[in-house]
Amino acid sequence: MTIEDIKNLIANDESRVLELKKSTGELAKGMQTLCAFLNADGGWLFFGITPKLKIVGQNVTDSTQREIAHEITKIEPAIKLPIEIVEVSERPGNFVIGLHVEAAKFGDAPYTYDGRAYYKVESTTVLMPRSMFEERLRRSDPNRFAWESQTPESLRLEDLDEKQIRNTTSYGISKGRIPASSVSDDTMTILDRFAMVENGKIKNAAAALFSKRPQDYPQFLLRMARFQGKEKREFIDNIRIHGNFFELLDAGLSFFFKHLNQSGVVKGIRREEQLEIPIEALREALINALCHRQMDSPSGSVGIAIFDDRVEIENTGHLPNELTVETIKLLHRSYPQNPIIANALYMTAYLESWGTGVSRMIESCKMAGVPEPKYDSDGRFVWITFPRPNVNIYSDTYSDTYSDTYSDGSIHLSERHKAILAYCIMPRSSKEILAYIHVSYQNKNIVKFINFLVESGLLERTQPNSPNAPNQKYVTRIKL
Q1: Domain architecture of the chain: domains with CATH
Q2: Residues 6 or more apart whose Cβ sits within 8 Å of residue 177
Q3: If you average pLDDT over residues 232-252, what whole number do you get?
């Protein structure tokens, strides 16, 4: 490096990638900036140049170089850094000292100087916020620093739903993914098999799947909304539920059945209920969102938004570094964001491995003749969008029109009819039902809304032999 090279580098004044110090009397501040360069876009640090771009140089002795080398050792992780020493031709015996570092790469551990982390805000060196430092630390070693791997003292076995643990284990055994001998294991042994125990302490991953106290975890939240129209302006329905993985999965699937159009097709002697978007695809997308969300953030929730023209499922976090919104649709390896949770879900047959989930969602949509989903990400959220097919043929608002029965035996339900089916999971009277959908209690409305569903085989009377019984109630026949 020559003085001319230095002049070219400093031509644009101090910036995000350039810092000038008059002398090593400001060595500590210079090292803070060097640390900031390491955490940002890299850059040059020069001693012997004033902030006004005057190259004055300074005396450089062996002691000066040792002092610089000593300060560099305070940077962690340790770095090897060559020191450029260039004589100022106009001032013999005076030298400019230059230090250069490369830009940080995604996944690099955050650098600290003397125990503190710094980064650049334009041309200013500032302390790195704790949230940014912790996020970079997690990215540098996900398995070590991940939220799911932590073992909080407050988490006890009695905080977990042991019945749910047993049920999911039994399901995994039935699918051949867990040894049959596990049926006699105690609960801690099962959790250990799921890699959810360390030194006798239970990991957060177990809470995410099995907690009985989801209210203790703000991120164990599923936000669900049915919007009127195509924008987030007016709600038809808006629900927020706290729960563990399995509770949130059940709630989300019920919400799909409540607000998406259903058709009942008679095949032989059986009626098969189908959603306008294959439930297999929606279930896979929701499982992925619940499994791969950013668990460490209190705002790490999952959202379901149903519009007139689409369904969106979002989760906090980002796509794996190895994938983009384009390549995620191609065959790829599995890159779980929460590998302990993902592995447990694989063992219990709730999740597939090898990165086949997205391709299976696309295949389900193709087989049903509906548009395939699309992934998007902005670095903070990942979301998948399912276009709603042929929305215009459905009664998709709370109207007073009948649902239609077609010649092939299929039934397309209005929003009110779907609301009734969701409401009647428990037996309800006709008066309760009509009040729930906000229509008057009149015989014509009983015929229009309730009897239609009974005749369609979707709703049944609790006293089928006495249709006009005073205490008659109705219950949904299909599984929501």
Answers
A1: 3-140 (3.30.950.30), 142-394 (3.30.565.60), 397-476 (1.10.10)
A2: 346, 347, 348, 349
A3: 93
